[in-house]
Amino acid sequence: MIKIQDVCFGYNEGQDVLQGLTLEFDQRTTAIIGQNGAGKTTLVKLLKGLLKPTGGDIWVAGVNSKDVTVAQLAGKIGLVFQNPNDQIFKRTVLEEVMFGPLNMKVETAAAKQQALQALEMVGLADQTDVNPHDLGLSEKKLISIASIVAMNTDIIILDEPTIAQDAAGKRRIAQIIEQLSQEGKLVMTILHDMDFVAAHFERTIVMNRGKVVLDDKTREVFSHQDLLREACLDTPYVTQLGKQWGLPETVLTTEELISAMKRPR
Ligand SMILES: Nc1ncnc2c1ncn2[C@@H]1O[C@H](COP(=O)(O)OP(=O)(O)OP(=O)(O)O)[C@@H](O)[C@H]1O
């Protein structure tokens, strides 16, 4: 669905923030992790067409991002920004979530239907008339997710969706990701929460200083404690407990840890 070939990008000449990335994305739920400044947000802005590569090529659904405008790419790829205040600007939740489909020239009735379905998915179907600016950060994040889901793109990128979410909010985000993935969409997510990554993502890509240093099944990635440490990242808490218990395998959830601990040693 997305192919990236030798992509370089720098905000300032001579200072490449991304250095020759080559990646292919398929329908697996994919987490992108890396310390602050690793280049994660820059990468997804390039995918969305908000930035253009200074070298290399990006194809989204077979189309080279250099040959299309941001508006043309908007029908293929949706990006939920890290800060919902960068995205929200309408006076009611329903207007906000309808804006994307209407902007894509969807008829008003269908746009409303898509918006209501998206709000149902994020658990805010009863907040349609509320001013989004009166809501808390966790709800604003859910509204910004609904706004992108309502546009019904095949590719959805979430930048730090778990920030400001309590345990129930995180469970909701995990359900949304799972549902979108089951609908056949590519869901790519930037995250700092390693426990969330371990529990919910099939593939994990680790970035460090503008390069991909690991790209594999999530369990495989979290078995490379040394490489992760070099990238200034921790393994999930439950994985660390498993290692301290002396387990040879890499566990990713509490269920896996408990079942492994019950085994005779
Ligand atoms: N608009 C900009 N102008 C100049 N430099 C920028 C700009 N945006 C980001 N950078 C720099 O590019 C590098 C990569 O930043 P980016 O935001 O992509 O990293 P990140 O991995 O998403 O970090 P975080 O986890 O903190 O969001 C950093 O050194 C950052 O300071």
TrEMBL record:
One of its GO terms (molecular function) is ATP binding. SMART domains: AAA. Pfam families: ABC_tran (PF00005). InterPro entries: AAA+_ATPase (IPR003593), ABC_transporter-like_ATP-bd (IPR003439), ABC_transpr_CbiO/EcfA_su (IPR015856), ECF_ABC_transporter_ATP-bd (IPR050095), P-loop_NTPase (IPR027417). Keywords: ATP-binding, Cell membrane, Membrane, Nucleotide-binding, Translocase, Transport. Gene3D superfamilies: P-loop containing nucleotide triphosphate hydrolases. Residues 2-234 form the ABC transporter domain. Belongs to the ABC transporter superfamily. This is Energy-coupling factor ABC transporter ATP-binding protein. It comes from Paenibacillus profundus.
